[in-house]
Amino acid sequence: xxxxxxxxxxxxxxxxxxxxxxxxxxxxxxxxxxxxxxxxxxxxxxxxxxxxxxxxxxxxxxxxxxxxxxxxxxxxxxxxxxxxxxxxxxxxxxxxxxxxxxxxxxxxxxxxxxxxxxxxxxxxxxxxxxxxxxxxxxxxxxxxxxxxxxxxxxxxxxxxxxxxxxxxxxxxxxxxxxxxxxxxxxxxxxxxxxxxxxxxxxxxxxxxxxxxxxxxxxxxxxxxxxxxxxxxxxxxxxxxxxxxxxxxxxxxxxxxxxxxxxxxxxxxxxxxxxxxxxxxxxxxxxxxxxxxxxxxxxx
Length: 299
Prior knowledge:
With 299 residues, the protein is of the alpha+beta class. The chain has helices spanning 2-36, 76-84, 99-108, 123-131, 136-146, 152-169, 192-202, 206-212, 282-298, and strands at residues 48-53, 59-63, 94-96, 120-122, 216-222, 228-234, 246-254, 258-267, 270-279. It is 42% helix and 20% strand.
């Protein structure tokens, strides 16, 4: 009888040990799964960064997200937003390209859509010239067209006023514009968070969305003599075609701004949108954006 009891106890102990080991293994598996579900936040080169879920507005990543910085040509997102926000805006309305626009490009050594004096270019085409090759001549033409006043200087001032009024309506406290293209006079700034909010607002416009996701375009414009020519523009945003689901938005650079990028992508119905400011190179701003979006899609 004693032998039998000892045998039963030994079986019981063995079973307990086996069960306990199984529970530990199962617990480890759960712990591992839980750990994997929270990826480490990315390390980016840019001095400032912000990412949010565009559907919910939830913040996904921040790095000095509210520090004011120069924005370079990412300013042109607001330029486009102001144009597209005009009541009954006619995208087929034609604008005659002035010598002042090309002189401005030369004097500022600015990025150009290569608009030709005397050509008649539609507002819609100017928006492509603004957002794809980042044409400061296109920005000037749009500011001149949509600003109010009897002189070009007055119209440009009026247009920049509309840019600032739009920023105010979006409740952006860390954004100010003193130019239509980002080539400011020391008082043109925003933050990663604010720029992302501007882009989010702009991306709600179907025309804007269509333009900024375009890799390249060829546009037929009317010449001074009444003939026509084709303008070919390629998007400076390298994310398009290289990052799955990328839908925009705008590059920027400058002596103070360094390298900037406002970006967005959609995967499986989830859209993330964000900004990096003051990165160190074109390659690094693109890599920063990819890291942030990869992280955002996993959260």
